[in-house]
Amino acid sequence: MQKTSYQKELVIKNTHEKNGANNSKKETEKIQSLLNLFSLVHPGSGTATAIDGDFGPATQKAVQNFQKAQNIPQTGIVDQNLFGIMALPIQKAFENPVQGGNLRELIVNTAKNHLQNNPFELVIRQQGNSGPWVRSYMDGKEGTDWLWCMGFVQTIIDQAASLQGKNFKTLMPLTYSCDTIGIKGIEKNLLTRYQTARNNPSLIKTGDIFLLQKSSLDWKHTGIVINVHEDTIETIEGNTNSSGSSNGNAVAGKIRNFRTSKIDFFSVGPLV
């Protein structure tokens, strides 16, 4: 894999506890982030706490509540073993075995595996588009300006291609820009425009990348095609929400009508 920043999200250097001498602000924020991510999936767990880098009594209690949810001793202390349990969804998304008879199936199943592990962004230091999932998709970058839908897409393509010993960069450059991929698709004759797709839906393939047009040479959102129907596509996409926003807060499965939306399609065919 080319995109390996997720590995940094799986470890801490020191054991952390309330007012601990070895606590660090950065690693405490990582702990607090994972506690909040757990709370988003388990809202009754009592693990939501401020992401402020201060391991005080509130963070200690949130850790104890996490330990309670895991049926392990409620020490309020986070060592690497406990941190690994907290970070397990990220590890599963990137390292769980994925099966598929060809690259397109691997892309679809890789995207589904990420979706099953509930990737969410967080707000840290008043900046959206932040947190361990975003950093994993965006090669360590985060913050309000770092829209991460293309980072998610390229992570999925990279992960799937690497299972076949292929380098996704032979198909497209590493980028966080929908426009860059759209233009590259035009240059390499890999982009099916929405007008053509509407007239010939058989050109839309699972595992391909959809690009939602803002204008003819400007694209505002992207995701992976999971299934194709007569009028609609099923997708998995990052940085979105239930309404299909291009700046939402999660990875989500969506249904999009390609006959009423200006959706272009970038083919992964050359990698297959």
UniProtKB/TrEMBL annotation:
Residues 1-27 are annotated as: Disordered. Residues 147-239 form the Peptidase C51 domain. Residues 10-27 have a biased composition (Basic and acidic residues). Residues 27-86 form the Peptidoglycan binding-like domain. SUPFAM superfamilies: PGBD-like. InterPro entries: CHAP_dom (IPR007921), Peptidoglycan-bd-like (IPR002477), PGBD-like_sf (IPR036365), PGBDSf (IPR036366). This is CHAP domain-containing protein.
